[in-house]
Amino acid sequence: MEYHIGDVIKVKVSSIENYGIFVKVDETYNGLIHISEMSEKFVTNVRNFAFPGEEIYAKIVGINDDNHQIKLSIKSIDYRITNKKGRVMESPNGFSKLKEALPIWIEEKLQEDDFKY
Question: How confident is the model at residue 85 (pLDDT cuts 50, 70, 90)?
């Protein structure tokens, strides 16, 4: 497939590092969404934007045909792909992290001096 700067394409997240999201574009090309291309605001955690295995949309901002690498951006587009009902899809880890944290959050709230029930 031929790619052009400005195209919005569907990619699959392959891994996440502190500085960006690596994606599989197709059988030939790989891509990187650098942390600076995720949001106009300060990004505190790259992992808040996607998870490995997720398919997302990304905009092409640079192409290196020699190395088969594409620079991508998600900061100016609606990059999330939702299911047919328009709901946010559960991550591969499910809601286990929320399940683990909820009792801790409740206990912390109950321990606050100004909390009255």
Answer: low
Question: Quick one: the chain helix, strand, coil %, rounded to 5?
Answer: 20, 30, 50
Domain count, the chain: 1
Residue 26: inside a domain = yes
Residue with tokens 């969404």: 33
Residues whose CB falls within 8 Å of the CB of residue 100, separated by 6 or more in sequence, listed in order: none
Q: How far apart are CA 19 and CA 25, in angstroms?
A: 19
Strand partners, 33: 21, 72
Does pLDDT of 15 surpass 70? Answer: yes
With a CB cutoff of 8 Å and minimum separation 6, the contacts of 46 are: 16, 17, 18, 19, 20, 21, 35, 38
Residue 117 located in a structural domain:
no
Name the DSSP letter for residue 101.
Answer: H
Look at the pTM and tell me if it is higher than 0.85: no
Distance CA 24, CA 95 (A): 26
Whether 61 and 5 have beta carbons less than 8 Å apart is answered as yes
